[in-house]
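Handout, page 2. Input:
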Amino acid sequence: MDTAGIRPAEDEAERIGVEKSFQAIADSDLRLLVVDASQAWTDEDSSLLCKVRPLGALLVACNKSDLPPKISSADLDAFLTATGELDASPESGGGLGPSAGGQSPPLSEVSPAQVVWTSALTGDGIPDLKEKILEIAAPARDLGLEGEFITNLRHQQLLQDSLQALAKARQAAEQHLPHEMLLLDLYEALRPLDQITGATYVDDVLDIIFSTFCVGK
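Output:
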């Protein structure tokens, strides 16, 4: 989810937009904070970092690495390890901090933050950023020497069906087919897994499709 810009709100509509941005940030499994590395670190950057840092997994993307940097790795390390109170004042960009008391939890209880240097213009660092996102979103598990075995033939067939549907979804994405068609392929991948776990239901996927896209068009 790409949130609205986090900055001091000048009117009620903008304030609501900033609040909704913080709500989305708080509900996310991973937060991607993009900063302009060609500009000096600002108090607004520190205020935003104080709000985002305690909420969980965080990736800081230092963009515009193709330009002379005004932020150093040492500076970032200092900012990321600093402690302090959350600035929940309206002047700091919306006033919706992650805790009602305005105090950030000890950083020892917060997931480590990682930094990636990128350039949206040249593409430099983007593969590394994607790799970091994947590492956090789907961390590799130690399967041991024997790995994992599927001993149930029915489960094996269902997993193969799911993999085939995922291959179709990948092909649809590469061909830039409409998103609703891609979601249908993803549902076909979820349905076999549902027969194994019972965790995903038809209504869940249909709600996403009809609430996000105009399928009739």
